[in-house]
Amino acid sequence: QKTxxxxxxxxxxxxxxLRSVFSDGYEGRVLRGLDEQQRDLTDTLHRVLRDGQSxxxxxxxxxxxxxxxxxxxxxxxMRQVYTFPGFLDIHLDGRVHTSDIxxxxxxxxxxxxxxxxxxxxxxxxxxKKLKSPERAFRVVFDALRQSRSTSQSLVFVLDECDGFAQxxxxxxxxxxxxxxxxxxxxxxxxxxxxxxxxxxxxxxxVRSRISQRSILFPPLVHANDxxxxxxxxxxxxxxxxxxxxxxxxEKWAGSASVRQVVEEYVNxxxxxxxxxxxxxxxxxxxPSLPPPPSMLNSAKERGKGGEVEGMLAEMSExxxxxxxxxxxxxxxxxxxxxxxxxxxxxxxxxxxxDRIGRSLPRSYLESVMTSMQRGGVIRLQxxxxxxxxxxxxxxxxxxxxxxxxxxxxxxxxxxxP
Length: 417
Hints:
Blueprint: H1 2-22, H2 35-49, E1 55-60, H3 67-81, E2 87-93, H4 100-112, H5 117-129, H6 133-146, E3 153-159, H7 162-165, H8 171-179, E4 187-193, H9 204-207, E5 214-216, H10 223-237, H11 243-253, H12 256-267, H13 272-285, H14 293-302, H15 307-313, H16 317-331, H17 339-351, H18 362-374, E6 378-381, E7 391-394, H19 396-406, H20 408-415
Parallel strand pairs: 1-4, 1-5, 2-3, 3-4
Antiparallel strand pairs: 6-7
Helix pairs in contact: 1-10, 1-13, 2-3, 4-5, 4-6, 6-8, 10-11, 10-12, 12-13, 13-14, 16-17, 16-19, 16-20, 19-20
């Protein structure tokens, strides 16, 4: 009891820091297994910030695999390198900024109006007079080209970018990518999307302005990497804490109860984001540190509602196509539904359909299928050739509903002979 009381008395000041470390959006998150992806992104930004060469790049991978966290980490590192004149980073989200006008306002707010509220009011009144998004963009970007801020490089981060691709004429994307061809502005445009076909969603005129370079982020498959990431982030969170609290929390990060939660989530195909949010929930529920196993179980149960439904609702086009490939093989009663057969079926659809226009690496597709299998969307069939090839079976009704609602072209393929 004495130890618990001591821990609780020391724990309160760092509770919020611990929760922020494991909550979504934490800038200092320590990542594991993404060194190559972070290195490629860093090289891209060096070309803009150091060499003055404007760039655009797409970060593609399943939700929660670390794309946004990697961007935050790299931008934080870049601020330490490029201190003067530095750079401005502007963040937009396709789920939030659902019209060109709202995107323009947010760009203007982040660029110009952080300190001058009167300027923001004046801009809003002028913006209301503009009749078209194209004119609104012209006002902002003309000001951008002439602004004193152009002595700094600009980094645009477009999260959930497929949302912007749904806007009429893709005006935002065209204007941003067009800026990368201007000699008067040094700019990087970072596209983030869970849709592997993101670049194929772009109109022809937009594709003509983008570099077509992309970095693939694989889904999470190794529990050990996550456990080590939990330890790393915990150590960063309690670095200034009293020695007793630091020892308790580091012990908790490597405990059997945390490992059990991590392994369960990984085996079910959950993302590292979901795992960290579960730990954040346990920290929130617990009045003392470290949280007892009962708090972890409570946090896990609170986050369990509709796991498979959530994964299906967020199914990417590549995941949907792989699942439908399995359904088609099962319909034909193929004698062995192995990965080679699934990928061959997937490739036949990809080649004949404009919506999935790029051939992805086999290793990436295998990792996606592994994640789907662990998430309960597909499962292994134990049929011969153990360790060589593996087959899958799908939750047919649930997958069909999602595909019919979200991906009509794939659903038509499912119904085709």
